[in-house]
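Agenda item 2: S-adenosylmethionine complex prediction
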Amino acid sequence: MEETKDRGIYMETGRRVRFYTINLLPGQKVYDERLFREKGVEFREWSVHKSKIGAGLAKNICPLGIKENDYVLYLGVASGTTASHLSDMIGLKGLIFGIDIAPRSLRDFYFLAKKRKNLVPILADCNKPDEYTNRICMCDFLVQDIAQKNQVEIFLKNLKFLKQGGRAFLAIKARSIDVTKNPRQIFEAVKRELEQKKIKILDYQSLDPFEKDHCVFVIEK
Ligand SMILES: C[S@@+](CC[C@H](N)C(=O)[O-])C[C@H]1O[C@@H](n2cnc3c(N)ncnc32)[C@H](O)[C@@H]1O
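Presented output:
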């Protein structure tokens, strides 16, 4: 087991590469991930099929730069599969503001937050950041995984919550933007739009074969 370029993310090489974080709550699973002990430390495997960041790691995406004690804004947190790994990485002095519009998903995230004390569930529409401005603070890292037609617009509206120099992970689902277009054309159009807004793109990868018709951007503010 070795640490990757990102502190707090571990990698096991072999016939296939696997990624892990150190379990903040040893003995407790969040989804159906594998738990594994080495030298008294418990690791949780980060699924590359159930998490866009997990898939990004498998595609050798550039470092995310998430650190212990960081504050994270997570747009489209759902039940917290991916957020749980970020929760492992930032530790108990960090915080994740997890926003989702769906009460059913956020209910599961709420129960996860009861156990993991660095999670803050917020039921809101990420199209309306003014509704949660007073409930969050400036963040070191931003994640967006929202399958909506206006996903780029949502991202741009929420960038104001990212500190200068902070990084963001943006997942794009081509089919939510336009089902009739070739996903590659859509990814290129999103890239041009971000560049026109003078956003610094550090990396850009298709998530194939882990997530069909998805790409991800890592940007720096
Ligand atoms: C693909 S899921 C996210 C999965 C999650 N990122 C993970 O890896 O564990 C997308 C989520 O975005 C949420 N969503 C869609 N539109 C939204 C909006 N306008 N505001 C907030 N959340 C939204 C959905 O309810 C859904 O839970």
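Discussion summary: The two ends are 32 Å apart (CA to CA).
Owner for follow-up: CH.
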